[in-house]
Amino acid sequence: MTAPFGPARPFVKWVGGKRSIIEPLLARLPARMDAYYEPFLGGGAVFFALTGEHRVRFAHLSDANERLVTTYKAVRDDVEAVIALLRRHARLTSKEHFYRVRERLNSGRLDEAQTAAALIYLNKTCFNGVWRVNGDGAYNVPWGHHKRPYVPDEDGLRAASVALAHATISHREFDATPVDPAGFYYLDPPYDATYAGYSKDGFGPEAHERLADWTEKLDAADAHWLLSNADTPFVRRLYEGRAIEVVESRRTVSRSAAGRGTVGELLIAPAA
Ligand SMILES: C[S@@+](CC[C@H](N)C(=O)[O-])C[C@H]1O[C@@H](n2cnc3c(N)ncnc32)[C@H](O)[C@@H]1O
Fold first, then answer.
1. Percentage of the chain lying above the pLDDT 90 cut
2. Environment class of residue 264 by beta-carbon count within 10 Å: exposed (0-12), middle (13-18) or buried (19+)?
C-alpha cells in the first residue's frame, strides 16, 4: 500500500533528533515488529522512518513531555482541526502573534488541537526550533526572526496522522512503560552530558542509572531493545558487558571549542 500523503516524517524539530544516524539505526532494528515501544519519543524520527518501511504492526509511543504527547494525540485523532488552526497561525504570523501563542500555550487553557497547533507553530517559528521550559514549566524560547513566512506542511501532518493511527500515545516516565516479552524497545534518552557538567532536560546521571537498571528488567523478561547515547566513559561504564557499537554522527557538539563536527554515538543492545 502506498501512503496517500507520502512518507511520514517528524513534524517538529527536536533536540536529539535521530535523523543524523538513522541509517545505522534502521540497519540494527528488526525487519518487522509486532509491538514496537518508543518511550523517549521526541520528534519521532525513528518511528516515522520505520513506518515508512512498514516495519511496525503496532506501536506504543510515549514521552515525559505532556504537551508534546498531547500534540501527537491531536495529530492522530483530529489532524484537520490542527491544520485549520495552523493555517490561521500562518495568516497571523508575526513576532507579536508568536508571543501571544506562547502565552496561550503556557496558560494551560487550550484544548488538544489548539495545544498541538500552538506547539507546532512555536516550534517552527522560534529561535533554533528547540523546546525549553523555565523552572515553572513555562515554554520560554524566543521568536526566531525567520526570513521566510511560516507555511504549515499539511500533507506531512496528514501522513503523520496515518502513521500514528496504529499507535498508543502516552504521557509517562520511561520506566512506567509496560515490560512486554514480545516487545521491541528503542530507547533514546537525552544524551549523557556529564562530561559538560550539566544534565540535559533534567535527565542527569541518576536518570541514566535508572534507565540502565530498567534495561535489566527488559533482559529478565527476554524483551529486545536497542539504546542510543553519547559516547562517554559514564555511558560505557553503565552498559559494560552489553553489546556496544560506535557509530559516527554529524551533529552540533557545542557552540565553542568543538563547534560542529563528528561525534561518536553508541548503539547498545543486550549482551549477545
Ligand atoms: C533525545 S530525545 C528523543 C529524540 C527522538 N528519538 C527523535 O528522533 O526526535 C529524548 C526525549 O526524552 C524525553 N524525556 C526526558 N526525560 C524523560 C523521562 N524521564 N521519561 C520519558 N521521557 C523523557 C524528552 O521529553 C525528549 O522528548
1. 79
2. exposed
Ligand 1 atom with the shortest distance to the CA of 14: 9
**Cα of 130 from ligand 1 centre, angstroms:** 13
Best of 201, 225, 229 for a ligand 1 pocket test (most atoms within 8 Å of beta carbon): 201
CA of 221 from ligand 1 middle (Å) equals 23
Q: Is position 60 within any domain?
A: yes
Q: Hey, what's the cell of 55?
A: 516495519
Considering the entire predicted model, what is its pTM? 0.93
Domain that holds residue 91: 79-159
CA of 182 from ligand 1 middle (Å) equals: 23
Q: Do 115 and 71 touch, CB atoms closer than 8 A? A: yes
87 alpha carbon to ligand 1 midpoint, in Å?
28
179: left (phi over 0), alpha (psi -120 to 50) or beta: beta
Q: Give the pocket of ligand 1 (CB within 6 Å).
A: 14, 16-18, 39-40, 42-46, 63-65, 173-174, 188-190, 201, 203, 207
Domain boundary among 159, 175, 200: 159
Residue 13 lies in a domain: no
CA 177 to CA 180: how far, in whole Å? 9
pLDDT tens digits for 154-204? Answer: 999 999 999 999 999 999 999 999 999 999 999 999 998 866 655 556 799
Examine the domain organization and report whether 208 and 260 are in the same domain.
yes
DSSP-assigned letters across all residues of 155-184: HHHHHHHHHHTTEEEEE--GGGS---TT-E
